[in-house]
Hints:
Blueprint: E1 12-16, E2 20-24, H1 28-49, H2 52-73, H3 80-94, H4 110-133, H5 140-163
Antiparallel strand pairs: 1-2
Amino acid sequence: MKIYTRKGDNGATQVYAKEPLRVTKDDVLLETYGDIDELNSHIGLLVTLCENDIAAFLETIQRKLFQAGFAISASSTLCEADVTELEQAIDSMSASLPAQTRFVLPGGAPAAAQSHICRTVCRRAERTLTRLASQHAVPGAVTAYLNRLSDYLYTLAVYLNHQSGITPSEV
């Protein structure tokens, strides 16, 4: 199978929703796919900077991001339980952290800094998804998942810095 088809050379491509759609490459649907894909790639880099359980959980998140894309196009297994799983991970990490009363500057340990990058890309993907939802049916579990994922990635950044003994600058 060839990687190229030449069918998109004129700025349009086909996506598969309930039925095949032909859209321009600047369509908000493709922009949303691209933002989620970029987020998934950044999380892939974060996986290489983390160890064991965190890396494994991040790989699970990567798979669920594919489910988010499937939900936008045709079908998905992403559900409210996936959102709850993120909440439980946030609560687990938060339990070992000191109370936070101020915003922290992104940075610190390399893994924490990358988690902050993932968080900002996730927020952009969420904004794009919200725009898409005004034009296409988007399951609520997908928007909730991206919203909670950005919270998870923020908490993970703080947690990774704490585990590394780094106290990032506060605002």
